[in-house]
Amino acid sequence: MLLRNSEMPPYTCRLGRLKCDMQTETIDIRTDKELEACLSVDRPVTALAFDYAADDHVPVHEHAKAQLIYAIEGTMVLSTHEGKWVLLPTRALWVPARTRHSIRMRGPVRMRTLFLDATVKAPAQGCAAVSVSPLLRELIVSMLQERRRYAAGSRGAQIAALIATELSVCNTLPLALPWPRDAKLRRLCEAMRRNPKLTGDLEFWATKADVSSRTLSRLFRSETGMSFGEWKSQLLLLEAQIRLAQGQSSLRIARALGYASHAAFSAMFRKGMGLSPSEYVAQSASTGS
Questions:
Q1: Do residues 78 and 61 both lie within one domain?
Q2: Residues 147, 199: one domain?
Q3: Which of 126, 129, 146, 165 is deepest in the core (most CB within 10 A)?
């Protein structure tokens, strides 16, 4: 795993456990120092910039502070024991302190992340996707221009206060894909995630898992809080959002996900998002601009 600071040339080395509670493998030692500074400074909000290449992976780790994970460009898939979230430039993920998580980049990503202490009111009790307004986006970018140890009453302190205010009123989004704890079901869900398609009903996947369809149905409900059909629909909806963000046409996505027609795919998308694929792309473009 390689963390890249956009303002520094590549320079990697092998590190052990970091004092700042982030456990990683190969990283840029100078980026590590920046991260430790964010986590140790006595300020309510600090910011850090990471740039990643396509398919970069941040392995499971945790932080002593809460984190708002956001990318001004690119798409990320963040995983915790609770579920998976797709993060586009119109949304961020609130991650409470000491929450173990990992991140996979779906294409090049320009991450601009915030670390927040306990004085900042959490927008949700656990991990939650939140909408990023144009104002919040600019506040995050502006925070990167300030000294981490900003003085009381300074521009940095005022930006930090505005960020806290925005987080207290931002909308949380029901975009999580619940992830099971049962080992057999996790393996099956991972297989479905690697090859998301409409085809393959409950009987098909029950055979794959070597269980009865009734057992598999019961497992999905008890482990994810969703039926098999609801969970699969959410998986396809999240995959569709990733592909739309990558610039793929809705017709191409419909075919790749196994829909018999573009109309059927559009109906699924509208049911889940309240917008057609084209309306969703247009809204994302206007929000991110």
A1: yes
A2: no
A3: 129
Per-residue HEC secondary structure of 146-166 comes to CCCCCCCCCHHHHHHHHHHHH
Domains in the chain, number: 2
How distant is the alpha carbon of residue 112 from its chain centre? 12
| pLDDT tens digits, 179-221 | 898 988 989 998 998 889 998 999 999 998 899 999 999 999 9
Give 210's Cβ-side CA count (13 Å radius).
2
Q: 173, 202, 233 — which closes off a domain?
A: 173
Q: Is 2 a residue whose pLDDT tops 50?
A: no
Contact 143, 156 (CB under 8 A): yes
The 10s digit of each residue's pLDDT in 131-190 is: 898 999 999 999 999 999 999 999 999 999 999 999 999 888 877 788 898 988 989 998
Comparing CA positions, the residue from 49, 51, 15, 14 lying closest to residue 34 is 49
Q: What is the DSSP letter of 8?
A: S
pLDDT at 7 exceeding the cut of 60: no
In a domain, 151, yes or no: yes
* CA distances from residue 48 to 3, 12, 98, 116, 277 in whole angstroms, order as listed: 12, 18, 18, 12, 33
Instruction: Indicate which CATH number applies to the domain containing 22.
Output: 2.60.120.280
Distance CA 45, CA 60 (A): 23
Q: Which two tokens stand for residue 201?
A: 């009903």
pLDDT tier, 271 (very low <50, low <70, confident <90, very high otherwise): confident
Structure tokens at 131: 């909408």
